[in-house]
Design a protein that fits this description.
single chain; four-stranded antiparallel β-sheet; 8 helices; about 20% strand; alpha+beta; elongated; disordered C terminus
């Protein structure tokens, strides 16, 4: 799933490519993906893209005061092309959920943007709204972790008030915006904190490490993603991981083997030496066989 750094990089790229372009046609190929009916998506046609900006993991295109908002979920992505196909889309017969066709007057270019989603489980969401805050997922977002107002004291207040495991707390979009499964793994590894630690049990030093790790991991990832075209952002994300999606490989910090805990539809990765004092956390998928 694209998280804060990739969505930030994607918005920079889209803003560069689409700002000033006129939407000539909007095609919705997945009715299930479109979550709004008023205003109709066809009202976007003829409007000019003024900006692309990020809210948490949401991308928001401002089209003359009407907003095309999308969330890429777990398997969605964006495909930008300067040679868009004029062929019609077969409803439900493609991995393309929506297609935007645009004309960019600055260089008289006809360009296109496809929203795609792989796999059979479809979660990509599209909204056409008069105000980004009309999207419930945006209206309920927690603070941005890289905003100037989000300091150590702000994080400490959140952590000390929560009985959740710290991994789940970091992923909660209503608590902190933009962090998902991958970067919560990376932040907790850098902070040397177990993903199963109860948030409110963390002491002052652990919270300080968590804040420093959050800033370092996210800033480095944002810098790595900046300026990359959408086609390169996924590879850029994967290339910088230390533990996430590296099960069985050596931890680059201590050399221990990166371990995994699996759940019904997701998993987490961690280093026992760096994070759990050498303890192997129970994998709930297989622990019943170890009793």
């Amino acid at each position: 799933m694209p998280e804060l750094p990739e969505v930030h990089g994607l918005c920079i790229y889209l803003d560069t490519q689409l700002r000033g372009a006129v939407l000539t046609e909007v095609r919705i190929n997945s009715i299930a993906a479109l979550k709004t009916a008023d205003p109709p998506f066809t009202d976007l046609e003829g409007r000019t893209i003024r900006s692309a900006r990020r809210f948490g993991k949401f991308v928001c295109l401002d089209a003359d005061g009407l907003y095309f908002v999308f969330h890429l979920a777990k398997a969605g992505w964006v495909r930008y092309t300067e040679h868009p196909s004029a062929a019609g889309l077969r409803m439900g017969k493609s991995n393309i959920a929506a297609r935007l066709l645009l004309h960019r007057p600055s260089d008289d270019a006809h360009i296109g943007l496809d929203l795609t989603e792989a796999g059979t489980k479809k979660s990509l969401a599209i909204y056409v709204v008069r105000d980004p805050q009309d999207v419930a997922g945006i209206a309920t977002l927690g603070p941005e972790p890289l905003s100037p107002d989000f300091d150590l004291e702000a994080l400490a207040g959140i952590v000390r008030a929560s009985p959740q495991q710290i991994k789940g707390l970091l992923r909660s979009q209503s608590v902190i915006a933009g962090i998902g499964n991958a970067y919560s793994d990376e932040i907790l590894h850098a902070a040397r904190i177990s993903p199963f630690a109860i948030a409110k049990s963390l002491d002052k030093e652990a919270i300080a490490r968590l804040y420093e790790a959050m800033q370092e991991v996210l800033v480095n990832a944002v810098v790595a993603a900046a300026g990359k075209p959408s086609s390169e952002l996924k590879d850029t994300k994967r290339s910088n991981f230390r533990v996430h999606a590296r099960t069985g490989q050596a931890c680059p910090v201590c050399g221990d083997t990166v371990r995994e805990v699996s759940f019904a539809d997701t998993s987490l990765q961690y280093c026992p030496t760096c994070q759990t004092n050498g303890k192997i956390l129970a994998d709930r998928r297989t622990s019943r066989f170890l009793k």
